[in-house]
Design goal:
By secondary structure, the chain is mainly alpha-helical. The protein contains three helices and no strands. The longest helix is centred in the N-terminal third of the chain and has 48 residues. The chain starts with a helix and ends with a helix.
Length: 137
């Protein structure tokens, strides 16, 4: 790699920073995934235990437990999604704000509309998930 002094000075720190950021992101992702997997395993174990014990008696309690488990799972998933989105959004927002502060205000309104649509989709997904799980159980 033949590089002039100037280019090397300018690029190397930036490259290092980028690499570090990427590594950090990867690590965070891995950690989150691991946590999710652990939670899933725990939930599954709990459900299995519940199903194995007291098959004929206490149906209401079982249902309640299942519902609670589902809620917990959904909450975890939502948290994951939110974390991911926040990370992505922050970077984009900062860059855009610096460049275009006073010129275009229409884009912000459009963004809000998009967010609303996303929320609706999420609700639909939740319903689908709930339906699927109930059927399987």
């Amino acid at each position: 790699m033949m590089m002039t002094t100037l280019t090397s000075i300018t690029t190397m720190p930036t490259m290092m920073m980028m690499m570090m950021m990427m590594m950090m992101m990867m690590m965070m992702m891995m950690m989150m995934m691991m946590m999710m997997m652990m939670m899933m395993m725990m939930m599954m174990m709990m459900i299995m235990m519940m199903l194995m014990t007291n098959k004929k008696k206490k149906k209401k309690k079982k249902k309640m437990m299942m519902m609670m488990m589902m809620r917990m799972m959904m909450m975890m998933m939502m948290m994951m999604m939110m974390m991911m989105r926040r990370r992505r959004r922050r970077r984009r927002r900062r860059r855009r704000r610096r460049r275009r502060r006073r010129r275009r205000r229409r884009r912000r309104r459009r963004r809000r509309r998009r967010r609303r649509r996303r929320r609706r989709r999420r609700r639909r997904r939740r319903r689908m998930m709930m339906m699927m799980t109930s059927k399987h159980i």
